[in-house]
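[audit] Reproducing an earlier prediction to check determinism. Same input, same settings, fresh worker. If the tokens differ from the archived copy the diff job will pick it up downstream; this log only records the rerun itself.
[audit] input (668 residues):
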Amino acid sequence: MAVAAVTAVTVGLSVVLGGTALADKNANGASTPVVTRAGLDPSLVAGRGASVDFAEQEAENAATNGTVIGPDRTAYTLPSEASGRRAVKLTPGQHVEFTLPRAANAITVRYSIPDAPNGGGITAPLNVTVNGGAKKSMTLTSQYAWLYNQYPFSNDPNADLLHPDWWITECACVPAATTPTPAITKPFRPSHFYDEQRLLLGRTYRAGDRVRLTVPAGSNAAWTVIDLLDSHLVGAPHVRLVAANVLAFGADPLGRRDSANAFDRAIAFAKSKRLKVYIPPGTYQVNRHIIVDDVTIEGAGNWYTIIKGREVTLPAPAPDGSVHTGVGFYGKDASAGGSDNVHLSGFAIEGDVRERIDTDQVNGVGGAMSNSTINGLHIRHTKVGLWFDGPMTNLKITNNVIVDQIADGLNFHTGVTNSVVSNNFIRNSGDDGLAMWSEKTSNAGNTFDHNTVQTPVLANGIAVYGGTDNTISNNLVADPIREGSAIQVGSRFGAEAFAGHLWVKDNTTVRAGTYELNWNIGLGAIWFYALEKNIDADIQVVGNHFLDNTYNAIMLVSDWPVKDLYSITNVHFKDIRVDGTGTSVVSARVKGSASFENVDARNVGAVGVNNCGAFNFPSTGSEFSLTDLGGNDGGGTTGPWLAAWELPNTITCDDRPPVVAPPAPSAW
């Protein structure tokens, strides 16, 4: 999803803290395993997000002789992009040690190492031992990290401004129109620092065993930041004996030869004989799209079957504007009727995408697929994990892990209907984690349910741009970084109007309500944005929990050039918990109205309602009205968050009040 130019400011709430964990201890007694979900006690997010097969442990809770960095919520810093906004920084010779909370035979490490001086990344080793035993080595890389500059970003840390004719906050000016030309510090706006690696340990270890990650002496990485460790108990490989086995058609499980043609032959044979395609354990080189239609493709499990490809430059741009191709499983284009009855499961897709080119079709899964399923994939280093261009219907996407993307995790783009995205885990997307984008044709009847989205580097955890009768429910969204927040309901990007209803139910957001770097204000953890049309469908926001909000919990906003054109109405908030806001519970910067019922708030840092309306400030009050339906309790230092004097439309406009960092969330 293309987004506006990004800018940077210093965020008042952000605090950079650092401290060495002396004597190889942590705050919990060195060897006590601390399992979290989105950096919180799992009890605080029970029933929300994906049910995953791993235990997530933050490095700052482990034993280390390194340095804890953070917390920090300022964009363009290492801790701000870390899960929970803290991590551990190691120099050569230092380590961090995790105690396994349960049996495990595999780990995932989320980390960052420096870029090369001129961009392009480096590689560096990381040693892994369990209980001081035999050493395994991971090869870390920053080749897929470290973007710079303005959208659509650069891999060159020494690049000049990509858009000198854009306004930027660094100088509060348009550099190309300013005399003398302002000096811009390089590298300009570094971001997308993290990557992750997986490792099978070779045997099963017990709860209480200690996994130590050590940066070896002499490493060419001046520092290594460890964000977290996921510990897994991976089952045996899945075997399908009666199938079109890709090995029989010439596929190379050692990855030395390109297996794309062998995959095509296996698919054709399977369709003629009404068989499934089976991809046994191995790493298979595939450097182009595999077109799938009316076929089932199964791997041995995404730890065992890996489809890995290079990004290939096309000799001439494709009709869709692509200048590259790469590994991906694609349904037929919707203009050709799309694909039907496609079932993909049990393998990993590893791309080679290192730059953002929005016209490129270098996604893990793409095209149009109706009456299809995608289950149990692991997708990384592609542009977008799963991007669908409809019209298409009845697609079920379940139990996938999508990490380290240059752009979105998943996007339903144009005319996707009656489809479900459930129990997926998305981390480190370079744009929206999950999106429904109703460009030109509405998405309708879709559900995003019980997914976890962590650390989207740009834009939102979950975004809905127009559409009809869609549902966002039971999701967990944590740590959005910039140019967005946890959940956005937006009339923008040429989307069709919202119609029918939109249910936003029983979601939890954590450490959201980010700072909007272009507007120089704080957003809400959930924000409604009327940029191109009115938002007036029946929108029910029910049962959501907004925890540890950097700024506001709820925002309804337009943009200055259209402030008198578009409004937001018919939005209803009910049974909401707000635990901690840096500023207000509700910020209204638009004309319209909303109702509130049983919205309970505590640890509110500023006045409960920041009501600017459309900024005309008429004597009759704000152009935005709040309706109190009862049961709205709690507040903060300024009294009840929804006080009688604020109703229905008292002007309380203060977009930049002092920010009060809320305490950590706790049981309600």
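[audit] rerun output stored. Observation attached for the diff report: Residues 1-23 have pLDDT under 50 and may be disordered.
[audit] end
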